[in-house]
Structure formats: structure tokens, C-alpha cells
Design brief:
Layout (H helix, E strand, L loop, with lengths): L7 H9 L4 H27 L7 H11 L10 H36 L11 H14 L9 H23 L5 H24 L4 H12 L7 H19 L2 H7 L3 H6 L4 H23 L5 H13 L3 H25 L8 H26 L1
Length: about 375
């Protein structure tokens, strides 16, 4: 199946056909497989590092955090490394990856465009501008949460401005909203470049560039608690709109005739994607390609049905980012790469391969 294009027949099938038992079993098996893979990735990422910890001890420590105690002989040092250093970082990566993956899948359905990702409506650029302002003007001296708070505020303001301009324009088409997002992204990027060029000292400049590249360094349980509720709640609510997205693929008129409130559904999905992406970017910086590539890869396995695609994209995004973070920590030891850089190095070739695959599929047809 071509992951970049959905025919009308495929859309109608996804929108109207009930889930047959064999298809439901295949979906449940896929979700179970992705869930087990995610758990394995979390254990693996919590075990490897400059200090290697055996998997069985890592599992015992993680179960201990869940108040499930098993007999395993691990040291206080291993407990500290896993429970206070690695596990919060890994869980932040899983939550951020899930947010970006499911938001990308939802927005590709909303815009009916497979090349859309969450950053296209100004979320990432708005968060970046807010964070850069916090670093540039010294707001980070107020407290440790000044940076993520500024980033989240910037994301909310950027999306609000784009939606306000879109509602005030003559054209209310979804293509206009996408173009507005591209234009606002360019403006915000220019403002960021001005502040980078006007940076007062090298330390400030390094901090700005470091954040813009995206990373999970020094994440704590407080960061996990900060993003867990908006991301997990957003994922659950977004998954409930799977059938609506399937019907909207047929066009606004057909969706309205089928009983879907297109405007409300679109606003809700955009708000959820903005909330989750803004929460993620606020603690990690800009991480690209997860919301663009992961839904395409998942679509190859599960098909275009958003009832399946959304939860699978969340799990796939979590797996992708957890493993990318492992690569960022291990590939050039003792040097640690930014996970955003690793995602770009992995995601760009995958995206090119998907484009080539789609062109070959089109010629074959």
C-alpha cells in the first residue's frame, strides 16, 4: 500500500466498514507487539550506558518503582543510576515520542496531507521562540521551570495567532491554515535567528543552540510528572476521534453528511495536537521527523484506518525516540549527541526511502 496517498475507496473502507474479527485480531496482535517492544526498549535504555547494569537487575528496580518487589541483588549505586538518572530520561523520551507520533498521524488526517507534522502549525517554532526568549533575556534565573513555561507559553500563543488569523481570513480552507502555519514558522525562525546573532556571550549562545537541537539531558521525575497527564490524556481523547478522521478523509461535505461536525472536530484535534506537542517541546527542545516518519511506517503495517493508526503511532513514536536516545548516548562515547540530531540523521533517510517507495508504487500501478 502506498503510504503517501489514500484512494477514495480506501478512505470509504476505513470510514464505513466495521472492524472484522480477523482484522481486529491482527490489530490487537500489532498493538500487543508494539507494547512489548516499548517495554523492552525502556528496559534496554535503562540498562545501557557508561555503567552497564544487567537487564534482570534493571527489571527488578523498575518493578520496585511500581511496588512490585522481586528477589534480585542490586547495589545502591545501580538503584540510583536506574531510578533517578536513566529511568526518568527514558520515560520522558517515551512520552515525548508518543505525543509527536500520534499528533503527526492526527494532523496528517486533518490536513489530508501525508507531509504534515505537528510543527507545521507553529507549535514547535512558538515553543522555540519562547525558550530562546527565556535564555536571551535571562528569565531562567527566576527558577528551573522558567524555560519550559516560556516554551509552552510560546507554543500556545503561536497556535492561537495562527487560528485567529485563519478564522478572520476569507478562505477557511484547511490548505490556508497550513500556509499560515508555514508563514508563521518562517517569521518565528527569523526572530530566533536575530536573537542568536545578538547573543551576549558564548555560554548563552551555546544554551540556545543546545535547546534548539533537542535533548533529554538531566530530565527528572518532575519533568515526567509535568508532561505525563497532558500527553496521556491527550492520546486517549485523540484515539476516540479515529472514526471521525476516517470520515473526514472523504472530504468536508461527505463528513458533514455523515453526521461529523467538521469544524469542531478539526479544532479539537488541532488543540490536542498543540497541547501535546507544546508539552513535549517544552521539556525537550525541538525534535523533528518523529511525527512525520513514524505514522508512515506504522501505516505500512496497519493500513490507513485511524482507529488503528493513532494508538500504533503513539507506541511507535515512543519506541523510536527511546532507541534514538540510546544511540545519542552510546554512539560516540564519551561524547553525547543531542537526540534531535540523531532523529534527523535516522528520520531523513527513512523519509527519503518512503518517498522512493511511493514513487515506485505509483509507477507499478
Amino acid at each position: 500500500m502506498n503510504p503517501f496517498r489514500m484512494s477514495r475507496a480506501s478512505a470509504e473502507t476505513a470510514a464505513h466498514v466495521s472492524v472484522a474479527p480477523p482484522r481486529l485480531r491482527r490489530f490487537l496482535v500489532s498493538i500487543a507487539g508494539l507494547s512489548l517492544t516499548l517495554l523492552a526498549a525502556i528496559v534496554f535504555a535503562s540498562s545501557v550506558g557508561p555503567v552497564h547494569i544487567p537487564f534482570e537487575r534493571t527489571i527488578a528496580i523498575i518493578l520496585g518503582k511500581l511496588h512490585i518487589y522481586v528477589g534480585s541483588d542490586f547495589s545502591e549505586r545501580e538503584l540510583l543510576i536506574v531510578s533517578q538518572i536513566r529511568l526518568p530520561r527514558v520515560l520522558c523520551g517515551a512520552l515525548i515520542g508518543a505525543a509527536l507520533g500520534i499528533s503527526g498521524a492526527a494532523m496528517q488526517g486533518v490536513f489530508r496531507n501525508p507531509l504534515v507534522e505537528p510543527g507545521y502549525i507553529g507549535v514547535s517554532s512558538g515553543a522555540a521562540l519562547g525558550a530562546v526568549c527565556a535564555l536571551f533575556f535571562g528569565w531562567t534565573q527566576i527558577g528551573r521551570w522558567a524555560l519550559p513555561a516560556s516554551a509552552f507559553t510560546g507554543a500556545v500563543i503561536a497556535v492561537a495567532v495562527i487560528l485567529a488569523v485563519w478564522r478572520g481570513s476569507r478562505s477557511r480552507s484547511i490548505a490556508t491554515l497550513l500556509l499560515l502555519g508555514i508563514g508563521i514558522n518562517a517569521l518565528l525562525s527569523a526572530l530566533i535567528n536575530i536573537m542568536v546573532a545578538s547573543s551576549n556571550n558564548d555560554q548563552e549562545l551555546r544554551s540556545i543552540i543546545f535547546w534548539l537541537q533537542g535533548g533529554l539531558e538531566a530530565r527528572t521525575w518532575e519533568h515526567v510528572q509535568l508532561v505525563a497527564v497532558p500527553i496521556l490524556a491527550g492520546c486517549l481523547i485523540m484515539i476516540s476521534f479515529g472514526r471521525h478522521l476516517n470520515i473526514m478523509l472523504l472530504g468536508d461535505d461527505q463528513a458533514a453528511a455523515s453526521g461529523v461536525n467538521v469544524r469542531s472536530t478539526r479544532y479539537i484535534l488541532l488543540a490536542l495536537a498543540s497541547l501535546m506537542t507544546g508539552s513535549a517541546v517544552a521539556i525537550s527542545g525541538i525534535i523533528g521527523f518523529v511525527g512525520l516518519v513514524v505514522p508512515h511506517i506504522i501505516r505500512l503495517a496497519t493500513g490507513p484506518d485511524h482507529r488503528f493508526l493513532l494508538p500504533a503511532s503513539a507506541l511507535g513514536g515512543a519506541i523510536f525516540l527511546v532507541l534514538a536516545d540510546v544511540v545519542s548516548r552510546m554512539v560516540l562515547q564519551p561524547v553525547t549527541l543531542q537526540v534531535g540530531v540523531v532523529c534527523a540523521c535516522i528520520g531523513a533517510p527513512l523519509f527519503i526511502a518512503l518517498i522512493l517507495r511511493s514513487r515506485q508504487g505509483g509507477k507499478a500501478q
